[in-house]
Amino acid sequence: MILRCFILATLLLASGLLPALDSALYSAQGSSKYTAKGTAKRSAQDAAQAGDKQPGATGSPPLPLDTLPKTRAVGAIPLGLEKPPGLDVPLFAERVALGRRLFFDSVLSKDRSVSCASCHRPENGFASPDTLAIGISGRVGKRNSPTLLNRAFGTSFFWDGRAKTLEEQVLLPITTDNEFDFSVAGVLERLAGDESYFHAFRHAFEPSKNSEIPPVTAENLAAALAAFVRTLHHGDTPVDRFQAGTYSALSASARRGLWVFESRGGCWACHSGPNFSDEKFHNTGVGYGEPTRDLGRFDATKKPVDRHRFKTPTLRGLKHTAPYMHNGSQATLEDVVLFYDRGGARFDSGRSSLIRPLHLTDQDVDDLVAFLEALSRPGS
Question: Which end of the chain is more exposed for a tag (fewer CB within 10 A), N or C?
C-alpha cells in the first residue's frame, strides 16, 4: 500500500495536483450536496436494501443486431491489460467468428426468442439496462446481468462464481429456466441440422474435418462462444494512459478521484489489478433487509461463510453498464459511491470489514465519479 501511494503521489506531483488535495481529501466532513437527495433513499436502503424493483416482464427482451465492426482484432490486448499466467488461451479467427454468430442468434433458446445479446447488449457494455435479467417468455431472473467485458481475465464466472471456466459459463444459460430454458442436446441437434452452421463448425474445428467425430459437439459449442467472449476487451482508457505517463490524459477531477480511489476511499482493496477486480467474493451489504435476500456465493459452495457474498465486478466500462450491483439496486454511479460512502448496509452483521463509512465530501463524490467515467472512455 505504501508503495502504491508513493507511485501515485509521484504521478500527481508531476501533474501539479497534489498540493491542492490536502484539505479536500482529508476533511472529516461528510458529503452535503447529496444529503437531501439521498437521505430518504439511504434510510430505506438501510432498512430494506433494494426490494423487487422490476415488475414482471410481459415478453422476451429484444434481439439486438450485431452492430460490432465487421473486422475486429483477435488476440490484441489494449493498453492497461495483461493476461494472468495460465489464462493465455489460443484464439482462432474461425472460432471467434462462429462464436460471434452464435452470440447474436436466438437459435440457442427454446423458442428462438432470446439470444446471448439480449442480456449482454453491446450498447450497454455487454450488460443489460434491466434491473434483473429477462429471459425466455419474459421470465425475470434473480440477478442483474453482469458485463462480459474482459471476462478473458476472469478466474470464476457468474455473480456467485459457480462456473470455474468461461467454457462452462457460456453453456449454463441454455439450460436455465429463466434464461433459454432449453437443453444442450436440443441446441446441438438444431445446429447439426442447419447446413450453414454444420459447415461453420467443421471449418472452425480443424481436427474434426477428416475424422468420424461430428464437428457440432458441446465442447466445440462452448469453445466457439468462449472464443468470442475472450475478444471483448476494454482498455486503453484515459486512466491507462495517465498511469503510463501521459498526465494530460485525465481531467483534474478524475485525477483527484483516482487519489480518493487509492487512498481514503480504499476502493483498491477489492477493485485491484489491471481489470480493477480482485475476482474474489465479498458481502458489502447489498440486499440487506430484503425478505428473500439472495444468498450469493453460498448457493455455489454451501459454506455459511459465503452467505451474501458476490464477486467483485470490474470497473472498466462501468458508465455503460447501469444499473449496478448483483440486484440492480443502484441506478447511477453517484448512487454506488454514496452507498459505499455510508458504509454499505450498516446493520448487516455479515458485512465485510473492508466496508466502512468514508465521510466523503461533495467534491470527493464528484471526483470519484469522474474517475469511474474515465475508466469507461477510450483513450484519445
Answer: C
- Cα(31)–Cα(265) distance, rounded to whole angstroms? 13
Q: What are the tens digits of pLDDT across the range 299-354?
A: 999 999 999 999 999 999 999 999 999 999 999 999 999 999 999 998 999 999 99
* Coil, strand or helix at 282: strand
* Integer Rg of the chain from CA: 22
- For 44, phi then psi, to 5°, come to -65, -40
- Residue 369 is predicted with a pLDDT of 98
**What pTM value is reported for the model?**
0.85
Helix or strand (DSSP H, E) at 260: helix 252-262
Write the pLDDT tens digit of every residue in 293-302: 999 999 999 9
End-to-end CA distance of the chain: 30
Residue 44 grid coordinates: 430505506
Q: Are 226 and 154 in contact (CB under 8 A)?
A: no
Write down the CATH superfamily of domain 2-53+235-374. Answer: Cytochrome c-like domain (1.10.760.10)
Q: Give the single-character DSSP code of 21.
A: G
Distance CA 258, CA 163 (A): 32
pLDDT tens, residue by residue, 52-72: 334 444 577 889 999 999 988
Where are the extended beta strands (E) located within the chain? 281-282, 310-311
Is it true that 2-53+235-374 and 93-229 share their CATH fold?
A: yes
Q: What CA–CA distance (Å, rounded) separates 316 from 78?
A: 12
